Amino acid sequence: MEELLKTNDPTVISFATALLRAEDIDCFVFDVHTSILEGSLGVLPRRLMVARRDLFMARAILDDNGISLSERA
């Protein structure tokens, strides 16, 4: 698994997930439980992960839809 996106904004994660799944790219959100434990402060980011084979296409899809990947690892 490769990190595609890291953000504190749950709406960005939801939108990116919907875009990727619409293109049949499996993605997984990491750190959900950790960010829930810290409450509603939004301090701990969530990571959107994809398989290495899908990374190039996933980056292109998010870029085409205006999701900044500047925070990516």
Automatic annotation (TrEMBL):
Lineage from the top down?
Answer: Bacteria, Pseudomonadati, Pseudomonadota, Alphaproteobacteria, Rhodobacterales
Q: Which Pfam families match?
A: DUF2007
Q: Which organism is it from?
A: Pikeienuella piscinae
| Protein's name according to its UniProt entry | DUF2007 domain-containing protein
Q: Which domain of life does the protein's organism represent?
A: Bacteria
Domain (DUF2007) ranges: 1-64
Q: What InterPro entries does the record tag this protein with?
A: DUF2007, N-reg_PII-like_a/b
